[in-house]
Design brief:
By secondary structure, this protein is an alpha+beta fold. The chain has helices spanning 4-18, 77-90, 127-130; strands at 23-25, 38-49, 59-70, 94-98, 107-120, 134-146.
């Protein structure tokens, strides 16, 4: 079976190679964003095993969620550029899943990602209280399958 840890780490390795739009924050990390004009948060979640035949490969549904943030309240070009870069890095990708805990990092499966979805979650608020912040979410669902 393809383990959750192997899938998550393989997706993070792929992300590091494919995305360079701005700083990336992973779950559990803290980043001082005071000096950043833009950043993304990368989440790998939605683990559901899919029905299968007894002799078929084990499969699980995964979702990769990228929260994109920009401090430019009126200028959307930077946020669009970051979201587009995230979509390119994820959409329709076939990503090798490796077990990085074993020597040689053997191939244990693949993640096949589908098309991305984009949602603007920017909220209008009092800039004097919270500052200006734009928020867009890029969601990409896929299937992890063992070899």
């Amino acid at each position: 079976m393809v383990g959750i840890d192997a899938v998550t780490r393989s997706l993070h390795v792929h992300w590091a190679d494919a995305f360079s739009g701005c700083a990336t924050v992973h779950p559990g990390e803290q980043l001082d964003v005071g000096a950043q004009t833009a950043w993304v948060e990368l989440w790998v979640d939605a683990w559901d095993e899919q029905p299968r035949r007894n002799d078929g490969p084990e499969r699980m549904s995964v979702a990769v969620t990228v929260h994109c943030f920009s401090r430019h309240a009126t200028e959307t070009a930077e946020l669009r550029t970051i979201a587009d870069a995230a979509r390119v890095a994820l959409a329709r990708q076939l990503i090798a899943v490796r077990d990085y805990e074993q020597s040689g990092s053997p191939l244990v499966g693949y993640v096949r990602l589908r098309e991305t979805e984009l949602r603007d979650l920017t909220r209008v608020h009092d800039e004097g209280l919270r500052g200006s912040l734009r928020h867009v979410v890029v969601l990409c669902r896929g299937v992890a399958e063992g070899v």
